[in-house]
Amino acid sequence: MGIAESPNYLQRRLAREDGMTTKKQVDDFLALKRIAVVGVSRDPKGFGTVLWQEFRQRRYEAIPVNPVAKEIDGQPCFARVTDIKPGVDGVLIMTSKKSTDQIVADCAEAGVKHVWMYGGMAPGAATDSAVAFCEANGISVVKGLCPYMFLAGTPAFHAPHRAWKKLTGSFPK
Predict the structure, then answer these.
(1) What pLDDT was estimated at residue 9?
(2) pLDDT tens-digit profile of 132-142?
């Protein structure tokens, strides 16, 4: 089988040569309508919960995933991505790195083709092994970015993070 015939050829073609996330990958993820947010907590001030609520307010069908909660804010919560029926189009991972490898394995098992591994001011969810696994399995990865940098009408205090990424050349192109 030639390289152009391999299942992840298109995936590699879409990724920047430097391995960074592309603007197309960000736009493709944000165009999805049914996503799981892994790392939503019962704490309404937890950042995973805040982002989950933001997606819900923007009319996404955002599904909370937390292995110890049955319900969050009146919404059914699932222990794993593989438990969600019908499945989701994408997964936003808001957990610590120690959970990411298992989460992306669950994503592959569930047929998810888009994963966003959160990254921001705090340590993010991305690991090299999880990114490599996704790429090997044809899953598009947004690595180490905060969705707030790309959502229209985001509060102004997120602008410095976006500006810093642009200044340092790490903002998707």
Answers:
(1) 38
(2) 999 999 999 99
**83: burial class by Cβ within 10 Å (0-12, 13-18, 19+)?**
middle
Query: 90 with 117: CB under 8 angstroms?
Result: no
Q: Which CATH superfamily is domain 3-167 in?
A: NAD(P)-binding Rossmann-like Domain (3.40.50.720)
CB 106 within 8 Å of CB 81: yes
- The number of beta carbons lying within 10 Å of the beta carbon of residue 129 is 12
CA-CA-CA-CA torsion sign (89, 28, 92, 35): negative
Residue 106 CB partners (closer than 8 Å, separation 6+): 80, 81, 82
User: Is residue 27 within a helix (H) or strand (E), and if so which, with residue range?
Assistant: helix 23-30
Strand 75-76 vs strand 34-38: parallel, antiparallel, or unpaired? Answer: unpaired
